[in-house]
Amino acid sequence: MKREEIQRLIRIAEEQMSHAYAPYSHFQVGAALLTAGGKVYAGCNIENAAYTPSNCAERTAFFKAVSEGERKFSAICIVGGMNGIAVEYTAPCGVCRQVMMEFCQPETFQIILAVDEENYKVCSLRELFPFGFGPDNLQERDE
Ligand SMILES: O=c1ccn([C@H]2C[C@H](O)[C@@H](CO)O2)c(=O)[nH]1
Ligand SMILES: [Zn+2]
């Protein structure tokens, strides 16, 4: 991905952080999910008084996109920090990595971890989720 495209996703993820509903952890996260067709779906984390119903920013973005008919994705950018101030990379939790595994090609799907427009790193889903279990594992094969 070009630097300018990455920086655009970072700006969208940063904007989304301000929509985070995180009254319990105070850790605000924004995500910007890029489809193969070039559209961007943004998401924030949404917490809950009962804690377990909380949803991460990444899954909010995926579920918005999938519910609009999207199925192919090329990248996601994540920015997070206490009280909306990003000081280090926020990497997706295990549950979100598993959701990515459902819809993305592990070798080519890019995960952009960003602190700001100048400080980011790009990894593949395979790097963050080696030996992941996905739809391919349920394919029946000829013996
Ligand atoms: O990659 C991450 C990591 C954490 N969170 C959320 C979940 C919870 O609301 C808060 C603290 O874990 O941050 C995300 O949305 N994405
Ligand atoms: Zn998560």
Automatic annotation (TrEMBL):
Substrate binds at residues 45-51. Its EC number is 3.5.4.5. GO terms for biological process: nucleobase-containing small molecule metabolic process; pyrimidine-containing compound metabolic process. InterPro entries: CMP_dCMP_dom (IPR002125), Cyt/Deoxycyt_deaminase (IPR050202), Cyt_deam_tetra (IPR006262), Cytidine_deaminase-like (IPR016193). Residues 4-136 form the CMP/dCMP-type deaminase domain. Pfam families: dCMP_cyt_deam_1 (PF00383). The active site is at 58 (proton donor). Its cofactor is Zn(2+). GO terms for molecular function: cytidine deaminase activity; zinc ion binding. It catalyses: 2'-deoxycytidine + H2O + H(+) = 2'-deoxyuridine + NH4(+); cytidine + H2O + H(+) = uridine + NH4(+). One of its GO terms (cellular component) is cytosol. The keyword Zinc applies. This is Cytidine deaminase.
